[in-house]
Design goal:
Length: 380
């Protein structure tokens, strides 16, 4: 289409010039006649209607097909009417061609890739903006250390250093419907949620948590365990203490991942209940509520599988990336092997949250990425 615009521009300039106007009158092939007078009874009060040059018709069609703004498309009929006044001394084709050319330039809608490079980028979990296409807009999504992965419990290297979790029951801030997930922010001016040990060098502080889930209970987790999928996965995101730009610093982030499976007795997870009960207040994309006094305690939710009160912690660790664009490869991943519990009813409440189109959020997960020779370590 860009090539056609260049041709149209060149022809338009030639047609609009006086010399080309004269030459066109002597051309052996007459212009296409679009003359409404030929189909109407004679009317002395109506001036004759000029024919429309084929190049003008082509330019009109190109403007429409190129996706120009609606306001600019509406000008086309007006310009045709003005063109038809040419024989009575009004505006004719000698003025219409330059005006049409300016209209195409002003009304042209930029191609999708061009708009996205200028900050209008959009990604999703389906269609031509889904995970398979993220790398077209965000080059790091094509990297060799991407997340999530399929976690294999075979042939892994051991870790001897345990993890320590400190003060995870406080610091809740805002609970948000992001349109792609549900997210809880934490206070950044206190010693809430401090993670140390294991594969980490130094201390990491909690930043936020969010979830990934499926449209049904057979899928939804981003990581898989020996090929097994789970209906829900929790990510608790931490930033490295003392690092100013963790999003662009190697191991600037540490993310602890937790699988959820359906409880065999269909019991609700009481530690998760305060958050799920609050979903009714953030149904629509972009909505949020203050969650400071909600009674939700992250430490109590994690306690069955992390070493907060002496629980035996089984986890794997590997170097990876964010699982959403821009897919920065700056994450130390720590994934707990033993899943937490959730009921079918509680899972169904996740699916009442709506995206920006008013549709239920679901299948908001990226598929596992190639390991590409990375080492996965295991602590037991």
């Amino acid at each position: 289409m860009n090539f056609l615009r260049v041709i149209a521009f060149a022809f338009a300039v030639g047609i609009a010039s006086p010399q080309s106007q004269g030459n066109s009158q002597q051309a052996s092939m007459p212009p296409f006649q679009f003359n409404v007078n030929s189909q109407l009874p004679p009317n002395p009060s109506r001036p004759p209607v000029d024919s429309i040059h084929p190049m003008m018709l082509m330019m009109m069609m190109m403007t429409i097909m190129d996706g120009g703004d609606n306001d600019m498309r509406m000008i086309i009929p007006m310009m045709m009417m003005m063109n038809n006044r040419g024989s009575s001394g009004g505006t004719g084709q000698d003025m219409m061609m330059p005006m049409m050319m300016m209209m195409m330039i002003a009304g042209r809608k930029k191609p999708k890739r061009e708009r996205e490079k200028e900050g209008e980028s959009h990604w999703s979990y389906e269609g031509n903006s889904g995970p398979a296409y993220w790398g077209d807009l965000f080059p790091q999504c094509n990297g060799l250390s991407q997340s999530p992965i399929d976690i294999s419990t075979n042939n892994v290297s051991p870790i001897s250093e345990p993890l320590t979790f400190s003060n995870y029951n406080e610091g809740n801030k805002d609970l948000k419907n992001k349109g792609t997930s549900v997210l809880l922010d934490f206070e950044d001016d206190a010693d809430f949620g401090i993670l140390r040990g294991g594969p980490l060098e130094g201390a990491y502080k909690i930043l936020q948590l969010h979830f990934h889930w499926g449209k049904d209970d057979t899928r939804g987790s981003e990581h898989t365990l020996d090929g097994r999928e789970f209906p829900l996965e929790l990510h608790v995101v931490h930033t490295k203490d003392g690092v100013e730009d963790p999003m662009n610093t190697p191991f600037g982030l540490a993310v602890t991942g937790f699988f959820f499976e359906i409880d065999s007795d269909e019991k609700d997870n009481e530690a998760l209940a305060p958050m799920i009960d609050a979903f009714s207040g953030i149904q629509t994309a972009g909505s949020k509520i203050n969650f400071a006094q909600s009674g939700f305690r992250l430490g109590e939710l994690m306690e069955p599988v992390v070493p907060i009160s002496g629980a035996a912690a089984h986890y794997t660790a590997y170097s990876g990336s964010l699982t959403t664009p821009a897919c920065n490869e700056v994450v130390q991943w720590i994934n707990f092997i033993n899943p937490l519990k959730i009921s079918t009813h509680q899972m169904s409440v996740f699916r009442t949250l709506l995206d920006k189109n008013g549709e239920p959020i679901g299948d908001n997960y990226r598929p596992p990425q190639p390991l590409n020779g990375r080492t996965v370590t295991f602590y037991q």
